[in-house]
Design a protein that fits this description.
single chain, 478 residues, mainly alpha, 19 helices, globular
């Protein structure tokens, strides 16, 4: 794989494809998240917290398998120095075999898992939704080939085909009274169609093969990343397990909605960057100057978008939840105000993970995630017992800010990244966010939680924030 040229002109030259991919990725993510948010609002008025709790149990099971199902080997396709299509058959074989084994395990474990999480009715939904792991295994090579080549236009078409069919199927079945089954069928139908579209546009259909000479290199690179991904899953889902186990399916449904809403910055801003950041870091794996420059740009861009969004989500949690989803979901706001803090750290952590993996330090990413899971396992049950879903959210946010954020910064710095590369892009977003918080607090003091408060505080907060960060637009244009 060719490395990025050194020097500022070389960095700018190579930033062109990344910038174009970022723009297409942002458009894709914006369409997808607006559509998903709209469907979520509709479904929240058609389904109950208990329905969402059942689906959350199934989704936890699926996410566990997706974090590990292709053993991390597909990402090697992005960093492969020769023709990436030469390893695609081996990657496909590994992905399909491991996905099939995981699905078989999920089928038999579904009754015990559903009962443990307080949702025994989720067994059938688990078995249906988890068929998606087989689809994901078949798309592993094609999806990473698209990422390697910065073909975010292709990804946009694929994702929006998925969105359209998933939304149509889910809402139709929910109206017909299928409850949590509507969510599972919608996801499965959408994934199937989008996989076919991906194969066609990427011109890479799943063709199993096996080359022994490739296995050791693929597994040596992939297994640490798979371990890290599994630990990321544990970090993002241990709260669901503890909430369902200790508080029941209804509380889990309310927490599930709050966590999904708090994940907006991660699912929009972080996802936009992650679709190109790993490839950008991987292409600069032999050029530390270009790699550090790319990291600095990504830090500034993510901070400018993430910090104000998380502040607004946390400070306006109650009017936001009740306006969008209805008064019956007000309990979710108690968790959302703290989960918004967690979201900001998750964005930073995902960028650090991609940097470490792309720069050739996947083991460090894995150990960071292991520490995060261990800290959560010790604190989340205490939070749940002390203050319900609000206590779970407080414990999650405290671990993220006090333990994990400093750990991410220190680990990345120890790879040779200068401190200024990590902090240079933070001053304007931090100042602007302080002004935004002050403005929102004044509006909250003068008004009651309502649509008026939401609109007024959000508008005024953004208006005081934008002038501070506007000069940062050069990060995209130069």
């Amino acid at each position: 794989m060719s490395k990025l040229p050194t020097g500022s002109s070389g960095v700018q030259e190579e930033w062109g494809p990344v910038r174009r991919a970022l723009g297409m990725s942002f458009l894709n993510t914006l369409i997808g998240r607006v559509g998903t948010l709209g469907v979520g609002i509709v479904l929240a008025r058609l389904l109950s917290p208990a329905d969402f709790g059942v689906y959350a149990v199934a989704l936890v099971t699926l996410n566990a398998m997706l974090s590990f199902n292709e053993l991390g080997v597909s990402l090697a396709l992005v960093r492969w120095r020769t023709d990436p299509r030469s390893i695609a058959p081996t990657i496909t074989t590994i992905s399909l075999l491991s996905s099939a084994a995981l699905y078989a395990g999920a089928w038999f474990a579904a009754p015990a898992f559903a009962t443990t999480l307080g949702a025994p009715d989720a067994v059938g939904v688990i078995r249906l939704l988890c068929l998606a792991v087989l689809i994901d295994g078949s798309t592993a090579a094609a999806a990473q080939l698209v990422n390697r080549e910065f073909r975010q236009g292709t990804q946009l078409v694929v994702d929006n085909c998925n969105l359209a069919l998933t939304c149509t199927t889910t809402i139709s079945l929910a109206v017909a009274g299928f409850g949590p089954w509507s969510l599972a069928w919608g996801a499965l139908v959408g994934n199937t169609l989008s996989a076919l579209v991906l194969f066609r546009l990427a011109a890479l259909w799943p063709r199993p093969g096996f080359d022994r000479s490739q296995i050791r290199a693929l597994l040596a690179f992939g297994l640490p990343l798979a371990g890290a991904s599994l630990l990321v899953f544990a970090m993002l889902n241990i709260d669901y397990v503890i909430t369902g186990w200790l508080l029941g399916a209804v509380a889990l449904g309310s927490y599930f909605l709050a966590f999904n809403l708090a994940s907006l910055p991660v699912n929009v801003f972080s996802l936009v960057v992650r679709r190109v950041s790993f490839a950008a870091f991987a292409q600069a794996q032999d050029d530390s100057e270009s790699r550090h420059a790319a990291l600095g740009r990504f830090v500034g861009l993510l901070a400018a978008a993430t910090l104000p969004t998380c502040a607004l989500l946390g400070l306006l949690a109650l009017p936001l939840v009740t306006t969008l989803y209805g008064q019956q979901w007000a309990a979710s706001a108690a968790a959302l105000q703290f989960l918004a803090v967690l979201a900001a750290v998750r964005v930073a952590g995902e960028l650090a993970h991609d940097y470490l993996a792309g720069a050739g330090f996947p083991h460090r990413a894995m150990w960071l995630q292991a520490g995060w899971v261990a800290a959560l396992a010790a604190t989340l049950p205490l939070g749940a017992l002390a203050d319900g879903i609000r206590g779970v959210a407080i414990a999650h946010a405290a671990v993220a800010v006090v333990v994990m954020l400093p750990a991410f910064v220190l680990t990345v710095h120890r790879t040779g990244v200068p401190v200024h590369a990590l902090t240079a892009g933070l001053s304007r977003p931090a100042l602007g966010t302080v002004l935004l918080i002050g403005t929102v607090l004044v509006v909250r003091w003068l008004t009651e939680p309502s649509l008026l408060q939401l609109a007024l505080a959000g508008t005024l907060g953004v208006l005081v924030y934008l002038p501070v960060v506007w000069p940062m637009r050069r990060l995209l244009t130069t």
